[in-house]
Structure formats: structure tokens, C-alpha cells
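tool_call predict_complex ligand=zinc ion
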Amino acid sequence: MIGNLLRTALLHCLVATAAGIGATANAQTLALVGGSVYASPDAAPLAGAVVLTANGAIAALGSRSDVQIPSDARVIDCTGKTVVAGFWNSHVHFTQAVWRNAGSVPAAPLQEHMREMLTRWGFTTVWDIGSDGRDTLALRHRVNSGEVPGPDIYTAGSIFPRDGHPAYLPAEMKLPEASTPEEATQLTRTYIGFGLDGLKLFTGSFKGTGKPVVNMDPAIAKSAVDVAHAAGKPVFAHPQNMAGVDAVIAAGVDVMAHTVAGEPVYSPEQLAQFKQQGIALVPTLSLFAKLPVGPDIAARLVASTVSQLKAFSDNGGPVLFGTDVGFTSYYDTTLEYELMHRALSERQILASLTTNPAQYFKAAKKGRVEKGFDADLVVLEGDPLADVINFAKIAYTIRAGKVIYQRP
Ligand SMILES: [Zn+2]
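tool_result ok
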């Protein structure tokens, strides 16, 4: 009898896998029971709560007596744990060898790497800012079909300045450079036609220690920004130095993908422009802390980036969490939270992971634990408002009502 049941269940699984039933289509009803819930970064915790999901959305949030748990729900005991909205990482790359030919390679290595790089750290939405779009779009298709458990993926195409091949990328890698505004316009149109979600400009490009940074002419950057904005797509930039930051301002770029390590804090004029133009910042502090430059220099680089983050945030600018994973293989997010905490409160860090990116990228149903919102959730082992390192201690990652990571 039990043997028969097992065989039937197994067959069911095989059929479901073969049919490639989608991430949302086979989402179960989940009941997250007994955890402490932060519905949003500014909300008081709701202790001993129930979060109910159905059809990929949050169906109910309340106390145990308020929420009726359906008999077919998968109950996840969250006692002692904290439930928050799913995390965004607004700076990742799918450029490593494992992602190559993502449309045709076996699923197992993709599944494993997706877990190690992203889902075990709570990410339910990511911005891939600079990869081979063919690989990323193919990967996204396999993620959305349910074959590779993973986050919602947005992807941007890159444009480099002339002679702007960065020293840290392999010399043989062919990179799209724009020498004129017309070339930048054309490249941007090509990316949008290909189905990419945004654009990334290297307004400053690192050519090696002791060599001058190559900056993009703001007029070239602006022509790309204008095409992207006309199509409703956001534009990121890698600034590299203060001239690159000024090019961000002059061209109307939306998001600075890094702080500028080793440079002074942003000037009052720059801060005023950030505010006026609604520019956002992805700090990537641990990236600089982990550079192979020796501890003294690394400490100096981190100090400069922390003070930039603090000035930017105190100025009221939207901070978007991001780590540059995929370029860096330092996946553990603990250090990023510790460094951010030197400039931001725990609640501000939670906002950088949830409400800030949802609002900035106009994802109206993401960023909060609220009835009717996407069931993108993270269950943390401890309260992140008591200790920021709890942001990195993930028990479950849930996207669209489906568990995409569960701590072994
Ligand atoms: Zn990057």
C-alpha cells in the first residue's frame, strides 16, 4: 500500500517535472506559523503571526485566531524565527562559466550554483547588470518554468566607453564600446529590442593601478539614457571615480551601481543633484573590503565608501542592497550587512533589501508582507533588528509562494 502511494507520488513528480509546470502554477498553499513578522521596514513586529499564501500571493496575515489555515496547506513552523519580505539584490552577474549556454546545459549545476550564490541568502529578485543576455534570458526561462529554483531576474545590457575595457575583465572578452552618441543610441536600441530590462553604462572604467580611469563622455551617456528612458527602462552606471559620478548626473543615469572607493565623500553639489534627480545608490561595500590590496588599503577603501553611503542616505537618497556577486565569488552577505550598519540602521538596511528597490523599480506588489502582495518571503533564524547578521541567516526563501531554498 505504502509502496503504491510512493510510486504514485514519484510518478506525479516526474510528470510535473517533465511538463515543466511553472513556479506559480504549482505553488502550494503555505502557512508560515508562529514567527515574528515585520510587514515592512517601519512596522512594529507582529509576534506569533500566521502568513498564508495561495496561488503565489499573500492571502492573509494575522494572529493565529484571525487566520484560518486550510487543511491542505503546507505548515512551516516559524517559532523563534522572523518573517520579512523577499530580498532584492540589485547588483549581480550571471557571467561565470557555470551559466554559459544556460539554455541547453543540464539543470543540476545551475540549481546548485543558484542556491550557493543567491537563494540561500534570501534573494527573490535580482538585477543582473552586465552578462551575456542570451545566457541570462535562457536562465530566466528555466527559473520561471520551475526547473531551476531561483529569483525573479531582471537583466541589463552594458556599454563601455572607447578604450574602456576594464583591467579586471579578460582581454579577449569582446565588450560593446560606444565612441559616439549614435553608437550608444544604436546599442541601447539593440538591447531593448532583444528584450533586456535595463542598461548599464561604464561612466568610468578601471584600467589598472596607477593608470588613468577612462570616463564616458556625458553626451554619449546621455544619448543612451534618453533611448532607455523613452522605453521606460532604468539605467545603471559603474562610476569608478568622481568624474564618473559627474557623468551620472550630467547624463541622467538612475542608479549608481557602486560607491567610489578611495575617493572623497560626495560634494554638497553632487548630493543636491542626487536628490533633485532621484538617483539611487548600490553600495557594494564588501566588494571593496575583499579586494586583494592588503588590509590597510582595504580599510581605507571601506572607510571612504561607508562615508559616501552615510552622506547619500542622510541626504534622503534611496539605497538599494547589492553585492556584485557573480563578478565576486564572495557570496556570504554577512560582511555587507556589518559594513552597511556602520552607516545605516537595521530598518534602513531592511528597506534597502525590500521596499526601496520595489518602489524604485515600480514593482507594486513586492517589498512588503501584505495581503495581495507577491508571496516573496524570507524566514530568518533570528531578529535582524536585534542583530544585522541575522539578515544573512536564512531558514527559508520563498518566491511566489514556492520554497526555493530551505536550510538543510
Ligand atoms: Zn558588477
